[in-house]
Amino acid sequence: MPLNIIIGTQWGDEGKGTITDMMADKADIVARYSGGDNAGHTVTVGDEIFKLHLIPSGIINSNTICIIGNGVVLNPTIFIREIEELEKRGIDISPNRLKISKSAHIITPAHIALDTASEMARGDKAIGTTKRGIGPAYMDKTQRVGIRAEAFADPENLADLIKEHVTEKNQILKSIYGAEPLDETAVAIQYVDYAKRLAPYLVDGVVMLDDALRADKNVLAEGAQGTFLDLDHGTYPYVTSSWPTSGGVLIGLGVGPKYVDRVIGVTKAFTSRVGSGPFPCELDGDMALRLRGTGSKPWDEFGTTTGRPRRVGWLDLVMLKHAIRINGFTDLVISKLDILSGLDEIKVCVAYEINGERTENYPTTLTDLEKCSPVYETLPGWQEDIMEARVPSDLPENARAYVAYISEKIGLPIPYASVGPARRQTVAF
Ligand code: IMP
Prior knowledge:
Blueprint: E1 3-8, H1 16-24, E2 29-32, E3 41-45, E4 48-52, E5 65-68, E6 73-74, H2 76-88, E7 98-101, E8 105-106, H3 109-122, H4 134-142, H5 155-175, H6 184-198, E9 202-203, H7 205-214, E10 219-222, H8 246-253, E11 260-268, E12 271-273, H9 285-292, E13 311-313, E14 315-316, H10 317-327, E15 331-335, E16 345-354, E17 357-359, H11 366-371, E18 373-380, H12 397-410, E19 416-418, E20 426-428
Parallel strand pairs: 1-10, 1-11, 2-5, 2-10, 5-7, 6-8, 7-9, 11-15, 14-16, 15-19
Antiparallel strand pairs: 3-4, 12-13, 16-17, 16-18, 19-20
Helix pairs in contact: 3-4, 3-5, 5-6
């Protein structure tokens, strides 16, 4: 009856999709518990590349059932587009395999318009959101005026709810932001059409997962975003509006902690971030270009959702240790180890200096974070291409030593490292 959890240890984009897809082999159910289509997973299976924003990457595994949990904000336009895309590729996405919790909240075009307008109004203080309407949808949820997926079951009532909702948001768009209002009737007609398509996917997510866990099924919670984008524990206010951390899993799916078995953290072999906000180990110049790639390959460091070049830096153990505190990881998976091949030396941040004082604890205030300068240790690199390595002995000694060094520093086992984008490109330790 285990619930296994996969969580990003950084600012998202850690390569969780590939690990989820690998682990989905053994999972009966894969569940999304937070965020929305601000997430982007690129999963490579054989020659096929799948880019998913909402549907859990476990869908690619034919024996797995996927569910969008109550903690997710769901944009039906994107969800239906992904269904159609997967259908075209011959993947069964019938309501037998794909479910939506009735308590998940719905994103509307009014949320997207508000996200865009408020970001523009912030000017140089913009969060750098994905402009997918995530923040405004969670604002409606916490303000207790959101529209839940359960409304798809009653299209007539949904039409009224949507008209009311768009009319109210139009007032804000016009009066606060001077933005164009939306046509409430057109949005209502569109959402009634969506409701007819999506109603068959609705379930009571809490009962479904409880039944599954009691029946000894294996449930995998697929993280989106990362620990440092968490509304409470991230680099506030440069965060997302949900809880990607392990606490968010329990709320976002409605399950109790007694079922939790493994909490697996996923970290890149270096660090990346999209959007604004502090990034103590950020690099620029040639090394940044080297780690980011040129964008010619789908796994280069450009946002899956927005296409923005990601900011990059060395691996930061201060952050990683903080993520371990918050999430209670049982083990850690490293992705993109292959990207470090060809470097003479590799730096790892082991502490920060703030006003000349050394600390190994991640500061929780923006003021302190902005003053941090990284303290690095330097490890020898390796020149060999490691993309065909499958067992530790295939790796050069320095690559093995890099993984062992991280494991020793954080006090957790590292069962896997990925050495390429494909599912098979993994070394098991
Ligand atoms: P929002 O979630 O669109 O409101 O964006 C808030 C912040 O989270 C921005 O800095 C985004 O770039 C970042 N963000 C949201 N989702 C992801 C993700 O899946 N990967 C990386 N960054 C993300």
